[in-house]
Amino acid sequence: MLADEQRQRCMENMRNLPDYQRPKSMKHNKRELTSSAVFIALCLESNTNAISLLYTRRSRHLRSHSLQISFPGGKRDEADVDFIDCALRETEEEIGLPRQRVEIWGDCKPILLPRTSTIVPVVGVVKDFHISQLKINYDEVEEAFSIPLQSLLLPSATRHTQFRSGYSGPVFVVDHHRIWGITGYLTYVFLRCLLPSHLKSDALKTNIKFVRPYKVPPKLTHH
């Protein structure tokens, strides 16, 4: 899974993602003018040699999206050399993972989604990983955890969430962790780019967009 050929194919897929087709009804806002980077870490667990993805839960003290699950990362600063530098800096600030531990695969195509900043995923590998190695900054992060790829691929883990605006998106539920919203979308996209066809679950073989129209049944009229 972590061989050079797999790496090249995954990053090529991530750099050639189709543009998100924005619904005409969704208005632009100021957040879309900013840029962020997130770190998608493929962790090789030290005790099992299993491959997992690293997630964080945002601090309850944050004003926006508190306690939601996300990938490490954040807004790009002027001092950041590039998006890779941004992702590694934010990761080290949030969970104390030194950039020297990361084998970088590269950065991906910027993802433009409604009502949030432009997101550049940065992919890398962390070998000999154990969650106890992290030093969490509790001002920003409530907890950090890794989820085995095999758990994300179980049919019972793949679901959808329905938004009030009439759109739905991919969700992954593993134990008490519910990965939804933008992080659910990024997880879905990355797994589709990483995995060969014979390892994809049925849900990952479906070309689901971040949000797709959901037709609400018409209201019944009472006589």
Explain what the structure shows.
With 223 residues, the chain is an alpha+beta fold. It has 4 helices and 11 strands; from the N terminus they run αββββαβββαβββαβ. The protein has helices at residues 4-14, 83-95, 149-152, 181-194, and strands spanning 35-45, 51-58, 69-70, 73-75, 102-107, 118-129, 141-148, 158-162, 167-174, 177-179, 212-213. Strands 1, 2, 3, 4, 5, 6 and 7 form a 7-stranded mixed sheet that branches. Strands 8, 9, 10 and 11 form a 4-stranded antiparallel sheet that branches. Helix 1 packs across helix 4 (181-194).
Please outline what is shown here:
The protein has 223 residues and is α+β, with helices and mostly antiparallel strands. 19% of the residues lie in helices and 30% in strands.
Q: Which structural class do you get from the secondary structure elements?
A: alpha+beta
Helix amount: 10-25%
Distance between the termini: 62 Å
Helix count, DSSP H or I runs of 4 or more residues: 4
| Mean of pLDDT | 86
Would you count the extended β strands for me? 11
Q: What sequence of helices (H) and strands (E) makes up the elements?
A: HEEEEHEEEHEEEHE
Low-confidence stretches: none
Beta-strand percentage range:
25-35%
Sheet bearing the most strands, described? 7 strands, mixed
Q: Label the overall shape.
A: globular
The Rg value, from CA coordinates, equals: 18 Å
Domain Nudix hydrolase: 33-174
Keywords: Hydrolase, Magnesium, Manganese, Metal-binding
Protein name: Nudix hydrolase domain-containing protein
Cofactor: Mg(2+); Mn(2+)
